[in-house]
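Quick one before lunch.
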Amino acid sequence: MSNVHELKYLQDQVQELKDQGVYRVLPILEGANEAEVILNGKKVINLSSNNYLGFASHPKLKKAAIEAVEKYGVGSGAVRTIIGNMDIHEELEKKLAVFKREEAVMVFQSGFNCNAGAIQAITNKGDLIISDELNHASIIDGVKLSKADKAVYKHSDMADLERVLIERRSQYENCLIITDGVFSMDGDIAKLPEIVELAEKYNCMTYVDDAHGSGVLGESGRGTVDHFHLHGRIDFSIGTLSKAIGVIGGYVAGSKVMKEWLLHRGRPLLFSTSLPPAAVGAIMEAVDLLSSTTEYTDRLWHNARFFKAELGKLGFNTGASETPITPVIVGDEAKTVAFSKRMLEMGVFVSPIVFPTVPKGTGRVRCMVTAGHTEEQLVRAVAVFEQVGKEMGLI
Ligand SMILES: *Cc1c(COP(=O)(O)O)cnc(C)c1O
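Model of the pyridoxal-5'-phosphate complex:
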């Protein structure tokens, strides 16, 4: 008889992953997440991080983090509702609200946490949540935690969204339409003006998760809502502090009453310790930097446009991206993994993304260009793309 503590059922499932060729070994980064890194002991150009602005190791952010540690320590010591709410947490929320041009901001410990906490808090039995089919996993999990009924519309398909509204809206008290601001696998932007119009026509609330738009789109990285000049017409505007901002955390920007309610019902705020001082100090520095100059966002977009144009000239298919997220479509799943592997051998790290994360036959390597890349690094990366692309018959 086998010992239950051998976790045989997990061993079997891990073996299945190995048999299917999808067993994962984590790459190991030695040092900061920068444009060029030491990965598994080898120096490579990094085209896979979300560190859009190079803030993750920016000297000013590091200094602000160290200063916050000196004054406040390494941990906040409690959840916010007990005694983990420091003056810097309050200051951060005020600063973010001004930056986002909204009435109020409530900060969470991560973007994932924010979706897990906010969606269930603002919806209830008798409500309907309508979600884009390509929304992020943390939205899907957040929606699962809600007592509301759920519906999904085809990706960015406004006719399909309206079909759901016509069929179901009248049976519910409140209705919340949720979308990513920027879709992370393709880099396309949500059709927010049309979504807002439909929401207003059918008396629905709107929730935009702008994890990949924060620090990237809009004036100085104020996000997708700012990009479309929709201030005041989106009820819940979610951002992450973990990607372009370079640190960790998430937030909801919106009305004062949103903040009051989340303070009472946002479970990650009530039951999980608040952001550590170092993170808060560094994030405030990042927001100050973004507010004072467009240098970082300008460089990000310059680099992204340059890189995309160069890949395009070589004949690569870079999909429907409208943002620095640059997918290079390979197609077949095994070929995509082989492509990424060969790129790494040649000194460029681009992560392979295949089914079930994206539809079958649309495997791609996803390139994340940042403000931290030099033109020389991008030129070198493009040369490797050309060589491997030719070797594998992609161009
Ligand atoms: C990355 C991401 C998150 C998670 O943000 P973290 O701060 O890393 O937890 C949430 N939503 C979307 C759309 C994302 O892309």
